[in-house]
Amino acid sequence: MSQSVSVRAATSADLPAVTALFRGYLDFYRVAVEDGSRPEQFLKERLENGDSLILLAETGTGPIGFAQIYPTFSSLSMGRVWTLNDLYVEASGRRCGAGRALVRACVERARAAGAVGIHLETAHDNADAQALYEGEGFEPDAFAAYFLALG
What we know:
By secondary structure, the protein is an alpha+beta fold. The chain has a single domain, classed as Gcn5-related N-acetyltransferase (GNAT) (Aminopeptidase). Helix content is about 35%, strand content about 25%. The relative contact order is 0.16. Keywords: Acyltransferase, Transferase.
């Protein structure tokens, strides 16, 4: 599939499109959402509070993917790091370079912001994502990821 992909920062005007993509992302990871308004509200809060940068990948047919990045800090590197927390391209838009374009836009913006690195995690069985990230120079780190659910 040969389509031109552009990436830009999402604004509040993009909330409906980003929400639709976010719902696809939640479905991909089999996250059940009891309150149907919660995904949009969550994204709206992130945008309004400046908590995250949401990048939107588009082709001539419209939005096909998004990435959500949380700027934070690393004590070990004593510098700013970015967490590429979410990356999703809808099924009809895959294999056109949208995922790669989103990753590259994240890297470019992180460098421009003075970040010392980008952290991300993906599912152990998500071979396509792992191949993308490794193809863009990401390497597995020496730390094991742990999570404690608090409710």
